[in-house]
Design brief:
heterotrimer, A mainly alpha (about 170), B mainly alpha (about 140), C mainly alpha (about 130), A: about 170 residues, about 70% helix, extended, C: mainly alpha, Helix Hairpins, 4 helices, about 0% strand
Chain lengths: ~170, ~140, ~130
C-alpha cells in the first residue's frame, strides 16, 4: 500500500492515478479483513473501490484532462509533511501497543455491547446491533449526510448546460 | 458498448446474481457481515454496470429519474418514520423495544426497517450521482 | 516498546502524510481529491488497528468463539466511509463545474484567471469566438 501511494504521488497521468487509487482501496479492504473488520471491509470494497473509482473516472472524462502539469519543486510541502509526520510519530509513543487487551478501548463500553448486545437485540452481528440500535441516532445523521450530498450534487449538476456565448 | 458481445453476455449473466447477492447482504446483515450500506452500494454498482453497457437512456427506462429521486427521499423518510413510530408507541424517539409486545421482536422489526431505509437511500444517491455525471457527458 | 508493537501506527502515519503531501504539493484538482481520499482511508486504519485482538475473531457472536475484536471502531468507520464517498462525490461535482467555468483544473491557472480582473472566466476556451 505504501508503494501504491508513493507511485500515486509521482505519476502524472490522471487515469493511472485513478487506477492506483482503486488498487489502494482494494488493498485497504484486504487489510481490514485481516484486522477482523469484515463489515467495514465489505463497505470499503463496494464503496471505495467500486463507486469512488467510477465517479472519479466519470469526472475525469468530463474534465478532459489527461496529464497534470509539472509542478514547482516540492521542498516546502515535503518539509512540512515530514515535520508533521515526525511530531505525530512522537505522539504515538504513548499509545497502547498493537493488540493489547488492557487498552482503554477494550475495557470501557465494548465488553457490555459484546455481552448484552445479542441478548437484548436478538442480533448476533454486534456491529449491526450497535449501528442500528444502540447508536441508531448516528446512523440517522449519516443517512442525512448522504441525502444532503445528493441534493448538493443535484444542485450543482442538475441544470442542463447552456452553451456560452462569449463574455457575460 | 452494447455492440460488444462479451460485455453484453457477461452483463446479462452477472447482473441478476449481483442483485441477488445485494438482497442476501441486506437481509443477512444480522447474522453475518452486511447491512444496509453495503446492499445499497452493490445494487447501485449493478445498475451502473447496466447503464455503462446498454446506455444511459436504456437505464433511464428501467429506473426513471423520478423513481431514483424519490428513492433518495423515501429511505430517509422511512428511517424517520420508524423513529416516530417509537414515539407514538410510547417510548422515546428511535426506541425499538416498544414496537412489539416482545422487546426483542421489536428490536428485530426496528432494525429491519431502518436497514431497508438506509439501503434505499444509499442506492438512490449513488445512482443519481452517476446519472448526473453521465448526463453531463452527453450534453457536451 | 519494540518496532513491532507500534508499527501499525507508523504505517498509517506514512500513508496519511503521503495523502497530505499530495493535497498540498500537487496542483491538479482531481489529484488533490484523490490525496484527500487517501488521507481519509489511512485514518480508517488508524481507528481499526487498535480494535484488533490477535487470536480473536470478527465481532459476530457465536457459541464457538470466546474472544472477539472490538466492534465499536468498526461502527464509527462504517459511517465514516459512507460520509467520505458522499463528500468525494460533492467535491467531484464542484471540480466538474470549475472545469466548465474556468476551462482548466490546474490550481495555478485558476488562481491566475481569478487574480486578473481583465481576464474573468467566461466558459471553456472553445466557446469564446
Amino acid at each position: 500500500m505504501m508503494i501504491a501511494v508513493v507511485a500515486l504521488a509521482r505519476v502524472r497521468n490522471l487515469f493511472a492515478v485513478i487506477v492506483l487509487f482503486g488498487l489502494y482501496s482494494f488493498l485497504t479492504a484486504t487489510v481490514m479483513v485481516a484486522l477482523d473488520a469484515v463489515d467495514v471491509a465489505m463497505t470499503e470494497a463496494a464503496v471505495g473501490a467500486g463507486i469512488s473509482t467510477v465517479l472519479l473516472l466519470a469526472a475525469l472524462r468530463l474534465c478532459h484532462s489527461e496529464e497534470e502539469k509539472p509542478v514547482h519543486k516540492p521542498w516546502l510541502p515535503l518539509a512540512v509533511t515530514i515535520g508533521t509526520g515526525l511530531v505525530l510519530v512522537y505522539g504515538t509513543w504513548d499509545l497502547p501497543p498493537f493488540s493489547d487487551p488492557e487498552a482503554p478501548i477494550h475495557t470501557h463500553v465494548a465488553p457490555r455491547y459484546l455481552e448484552d448486545g445479542p441478548r437484548e437485540t436478538g442480533v448476533p452481528n454486534v456491529v449491526t446491533a450497535v449501528l442500528a440500535s444502540y447508536r441508531g441516532f448516528d446512523t440517522l445523521g449519516e443517512t442525512t449526510v448522504v441525502f444532503t450530498a445528493a441534493i448538493g450534487v443535484i444542485a450543482l449538476l442538475g441544470r442542463r448546460r447552456h452553451v456560452r456565448r462569449g463574455k457575460q | 458498448m452494447k455492440n460488444d458481445m462479451i460485455l453484453r453476455v457477461v452483463g446479462k449473466l452477472f447482473i441478476p446474481f449481483i442483485l441477488l447477492f445485494a438482497l442476501y447482504v441486506q437481509f443477512h446483515g444480522d447474522f453475518g457481515p452486511g447491512g444496509g450500506f453495503q446492499a445499497g452500494a452493490i445494487v447501485a454498482a449493478a445498475m451502473v454496470f447496466y447503464a455503462m453497457i446498454y446506455g444511459l437512456s436504456t437505464a433511464r427506462r428501467v429506473l426513471p429519474d423520478w423513481l431514483v429521486e424519490s428513492m433518495i427521499a423515501a429511505g430517509l423518510l422511512l428511517y424517520l418514520g420508524v423513529g416516530f413510530a417509537g414515539l407514538y408507541a410510547g417510548g422515546n424517539f428511535l426506541d425499538y423495544f416498544v414496537l412489539d409486545a416482545d422487546p426483542v421482536e421489536g428490536q428485530h422489526r426496528g432494525i429491519f426497517w431502518i436497514e431497508l431505509g438506509v439501503a434505499i437511500t444509499v442506492c438512490g444517491v449513488l445512482l443519481k450521482i452517476y446519472y448526473l455525471f453521465a448526463q453531463r457527458g452527453q450534453d457536451r | 516498546m519494540n518496532f513491532f508493537s507500534h508499527y501499525d501506527y507508523w504505517v498509517m502515519l506514512f500513508l496519511a502524510m503521503s495523502g497530505l503531501f499530495i493535497v498540498i504539493a500537487r496542483g491538479n484538482l482531481i489529484k488533490k481529491l484523490v490525496g484527500l481520499a487517501i488521507l481519509q482511508t489511512s485514518v480508517y486504519l488508524l481507528y481499526l488497528a487498535p480494535g484488533k485482538i490477535v487470536g480473536g475473531t470478527a465481532p459476530i457472536v457465536d457459541a464457538a468463539f470466546t474472544v472477539y475484536s472490538n466492534p465499536l471502531p468498526q461502527v464509527l468507520i462504517l459511517t465514516a466511509i459512507v460520509v467520505g464517498v458522499a463528500t468525494l462525490a460533492l467535491g467531484l461535482a464542484l471540480v466538474v463545474r470549475i472545469r466548465e467555468e474556468y476551462g482548466t483544473i490546474e490550481e495555478d491557472e485558476i488562481l491566475r484567471l481569478d487574480a486578473d480582473p481583465a481576464d474573468q472566466p467566461s466558459g471553456p476556451p472553445e466557446a469564446q469566438r
